[in-house]
Specification:
The protein is of the alpha/beta class. Helices cover 43% and strands 14% of the residues. The protein is built from 14 helices and eleven strands. A six-stranded mixed sheet has the order 7-6-8-5-9-11, sandwiched between helices. Helix 2 links the parallel strand 1 and strand 2. Helix 4 crosses helix 13 and helix 10 crosses helix 14.
């Protein structure tokens, strides 16, 4: 993938961050800049591996001119309150998952779909491409919520997790599957019964037989929650990457940062998109796959025919549903946005390299 400049900055020191700490003797002598970062998930959750790398490198490459205070697992604000907290500047940066803010980010919901692409690392580029090209998406974040997208991220992959092995869509028929947001819509379209349920309740529901399976849990979180102890079958249905999210920064806070600090941020974002996301998540997924196999997980990949059947059941109906029920009532040009998404997928998806856990397991 070609290196791209996603956030424009000014100032003669725009390239100085490549020199590391040597670029910052003047800033280091001044008052230290503190960034208050909060995430609603734990520091070992899927996206947190990328967030920790970004924050650690930001401190290191600015030679202490930036100091980040980290708050994990919603230790300052409740889940669902972080977007307003960034807007009101009670925190400076946060991970935002659009599923918790469906009425607040109707445009962004147009980025949430399954069965349209293959690789999670390519999804970062797709989201950023649309963010640059589709003004309503950018304005939704920056104007409405005063939250500039620092970088797009996601929850890598979400297997279909079931108590019994499922080899095709027919094997899901009538099963009670926990879903989350758009994932619940996928469950219903595949013939199962979607059961919305808070994440902490899922293990017990599986244990008691209330649920036959789970969808919408990323692989890393599913293993961390030990869902495989009850539902050991993890299946790749051909649904592609899971749950685009964004790390955002208050726009006023960003504008107040010195240009050379902004430049360091931009360089780190480039590195996330070009190599670090794939590098970090490849290592994390490999570790979790080994742990999963040691603890009895059975990985399964549907045949090409079964994947095609599932895709036909979900797409394009899922996208059309968003256009009709979300885009049109909110005066969003849904057709234009989805065309930009389709073009970006065609541009980037074939360059994606991050393997699914099922693929990692199959390679041995």
């Amino acid at each position: 993938m070609q290196r791209r400049h996603f956030i424009k900055t000014a100032g003669a020191l725009a390239g100085a961050s490549a020199l590391g700490s040597l670029a910052f003797p003047a800033i280091a002598k001044n008052k230290q800049i503190r960034i208050k970062f909060e995430s609603y998930v734990t520091e070992t959750a899927g996206p947190s591996w990328i967030d920790r790398w970004f924050l650690d490198e930001l401190e290191k490459r600015t030679d202490g001119a930036i100091k980040v205070s980290r708050y994990w697992a919603a230790s300052l604000n409740k889940v669902g309150e972080h977007l307003s907290a960034v807007r009101d500047r009670t925190i400076d940066m946060s991970l935002i998952s659009p599923g918790y803010y469906q009425s607040d980010v109707p445009v962004t919901r147009g980025l949430e779909w399954y069965f349209r692409m293959n690789r999670a690392d390519a999804l970062l580029h797709v989201c950023q491409d649309v963010y640059e090209q589709f003004d309503p998406l950018r304005e939704e974040w920056e104007d409405r919520h005063k939250a500039r997208v620092m970088y797009w991220t996601n929850w890598n992959y979400a297997p279909m997790i079931t108590r019994e092995k499922a080899d095709s869509q027919q094997d899901l028929d009538g099963l009670r599957i926990r879903g989350y947001g758009v994932a619940n819509d996928v469950v219903e379209r595949l013939g199962a019964t979607g059961v919305p349920m808070a994440a902490p309740e899922v293990y017990t529901a599986l244990e008691r037989g209330v649920l036959d399976g789970v969808y919408g849990f990323d692989f890393i979180t599913a293993i961390a929650y030990k869902l495989h102890e009850i539902a050991p079958h993890f299946t790749d249905m051909g649904d592609g990457p899971h749950a685009p999210s964004a790390v955002v920064i208050n726009t006023d806070f960003w504008d107040d940062l010195p240009s050379d600090i902004q430049s360091v941020c931009n360089d780190l974002v480039h590195e996330i998109y070009e190599e670090q996301y794939s590098k970090i998540m490849t290592e994390v997924l490999a570790d979790y796959v080994k742990k999963a196999e040691d603890e009895g997980v059975e990985f399964n990949i549907w045949s090409d025919e079964a994947k095609a059947e599932a895709k036909k059941a979900v797409q394009p109906a899922e996208v059309e549903h968003w256009i009709e029920t979300v885009a049109e009532p909110n005066n969003i040009d849904g057709e234009k946005m989805q065309k930009l998404i389709a073009d970006a997928i065609e541009k980037y998806d074939s360059d994606g390299s991050l393997l699914r856990p099922e693929e990692i397991a199959a390679k041995g």
